[in-house]
Amino acid sequence: MSSNSENGKWRNLSGLSQIIGTTALVLPVIIAALWAVEVQTMLGLLVFKEQFLALMLACGLVAIFLNVRGRNGEKSGSVPLHDWLLAACAIASCGYVFVNYKWLVYETSSLEPLRIVLGCIMIATVFEATRRMIGWTLIFVALFFIFYARFGGMMPGIFAIPSSSWERIVIYSYLDTTALFGLPLSVAANTIVTFIFFGAMLKITRGDKFITNLALSLMGKYRGGPAKVSVAASTLFGSVSGSAVSNVAVVGPISIPMMEEAGYPKHQSAAIEAVSSTGGQIMPPVMGITAFLMADFLAVPYSDVVIAALLPALLYYVAVFVQVDFEAGKYGLKGLSLADLPKFLPTLRQGLVFFIPLGVLIYAVMFAFWPPGKAGLAAAAAALFVGMITERTRPSLSDVAGAFVTTGRTVASIMILTAVAGIVIGALQLAGLAYSMSSILVALAGDNVVLILLMTAVVCIVLGMALPTAVIYTMLAVLVAPALVDLGVDRMAAHLFIFYMGMLSMITPPVCFASFTAAAIAGASFWSTAISGMRYGIAAYLLPFVFPFSLGLLFQGSMMEIFWAAASAIIGLIAISASLVGYLFRNLNVVFRVVLFAAGFSAMLSPFNGELTKMLNFGGLGIVCVIAVFEWIAASRTQTQTAT
Fold first, then answer.
1. Where are the domains of the chain?
2. N or C: more exposed end of the chain, with fewer CB within 10 A?
């Protein structure tokens, strides 16, 4: 969605309503920060995690009902009575959990009438907040699984399950720790809030400008320079943002006009920015909410996910960068004038301090093994500290206050998103589908790893047209990942496969928010942007299929396996990029484009996984090298003839 439509949801309040509404936005940021540094432990208080989550969700719901309009035609300057009542209902249902959880933990299955009523209120308020922030699609998905849990006994064959009563469904969704107050909401409240705050601190101290200017100084002078700036800036900003739409909103207004001035069509400029920004979800060290969910599902330190995701993320950007370069070569596009570019050393010198918060984050996560929430808060504090050093980067008090409000708005959306995801997971658990789906897929795939990967990819992409990445991953990590593991796929490879396929929702039409936002900024056709974006994002579509057969890409195996996996993946992606653009050293004919695509994919498979993959790897590399040499010689001859 565009930023304008997003901002149009929010009311312009004044007086007491504004004070209460703003407090509801800021409060969860403060509560999450206090929880991250374990203030409750310092004070000797026994606070259950679920009590903390109930408090965070209450703040998120109240913030939405007071600050977000219920419908388009509604006045934005006041809060209607029914929204005050909805806020009160949210406080009552969450407050019951917050106050009574010390006793509820022993009897969460009790069908007490008061709990059923409060559970219904809880689900209704979450759905209404979801409708305002995200729309109906996610609600329909949740209702589908709720109805499946209720009427599953009427389903045919392998899809039949024991039906649950409405009362049981409501209580389970409301109070069970695998449902609404489960893993998705826990990860968001414990971790994501402080990382969003880190991004806000970086922005008010002009760290985002430093990232863009540094990319300009490095890439701006080369052919297709503005597009390469978009790739580089989105890589750098995405590494600390983790949000595709946020990356587009920050970098797009700068990079898209530059690309257009350099000769790129509007839709290609928007597509390059959308795909570059989407990679922020997979680019360490921060990545997105899904990475933190993955660490919890795998029960491994977040640093393990970062290490496994690093090389695939770099390869993703290599593919985008190479396509941009080939595109520039094909159309004879030039770089920007040196006079129009910031100087590298002065830019680096002015912004060198911004490496400090990034260093703090990396040290805290990778070496000190701090919890991610605490590490994100430390990075945010470091960003604010370094910003205070010079007058140019020093934020005002209103800037800092604005960062809290901006963070609160994003947090409110994430609280709702993860709460609904929890309801979906709870319904899946109650229906037993979480345990039967793996066996269903294995039965349909016939123990064929490639077939089950293809089936999973289709499910991810279809769901991705309607659901955010975190929700897709959460569902499929429960439903599909066990089936992949049962067939011998490495656990990290299986979860990264789902992660990547879920991420494609940002660039796969018809619902692709990153492409939509970039198209709106560029004033380009949405469909042209989306189709071009799918081509530029080809690495995200192909790389996941390589993970199970080339674990060296995930830094597993010997140094030789890792080096060979990385080198052959780079060569393979260059070949595929040349095939898609139709240019290597000169324009390629159709036959060479088809052969390069097939050979490039073969080259990405590890030769250490058996005779078949060994033959495909060596054969693919050989064919790519032969075509590259032939094209280079032919292009050199053409240049020589032209010169003479």
1. 3-137, 186-556, 565-644
2. C
d(CA 354, CA 382): 9
Q: What pTM was computed for the model?
A: 0.71
Mean pLDDT over the full length of the chain: 83
CB 492 within 8 A of CB 500: no
For the chain, the distance separating the N- and C-terminal CA atoms, rounded to the nearest angstrom, is: 54
Q: In this model, does residue 184 exceed pLDDT 60?
A: yes
Residue-wise pLDDT for 257-301, tens only, equals 777 877 778 888 888 888 888 887 788 876 766 777 888 888 888
Cα 393 to Cα 381: distance, rounded to the nearest angstrom: 14
Question: How far is it, in rounded angstroms, from Cα 173 to Cα 119?
Answer: 8
In this prediction, residue 342 has a pLDDT band, given cuts at 50, 70 and 90, of confident
Task: Enter the tokens of residue 475.
Answer: 């569902």
Distance, in Å, from the CA atom of 608 to the CA atom of 628, rounded to the nearest integer, reads 25
Find the radius of gyration of the CA atoms of the chain: 25
C-alpha 168/C-alpha 427 separation (Å) is 10
Residue 463 has a pLDDT of: 63
Between these two residues, 464 and 70, which has the higher pLDDT value?
70
Residue 311 CB neighbour total at 10 angstroms: 18
What integer is the mean pLDDT of 535-559? 85
Residue 622 confidence (pLDDT) above 70: yes
Compute the C-alpha angle 268/269/272, nearest 5°.
80
Q: Which residue has the tokens 């963070």?
A: 407
Which 3-state string (H, E, C) describes 273-335? HHHHHHHHHCCCCCCCHHHHHHHHHHCCCHHHHHHHHHHHHHHHHHHHHHHHHHHHHHHCCCC
3-state secondary structure of 10: strand
Q: Strand, helix or coil at 391?
A: coil
- In 3D, which of 252, 362, 244 has the Cα closest to residue 310? 362
- Both tokens assigned to 581: 């653009």
What integer is the mean pLDDT of 71-83?
85
Q: If pLDDT is split at 50, 70 and 90, which confidence band does 18 have?
A: very high
Sign of CA dihedral 116, 122, 125, 129: negative
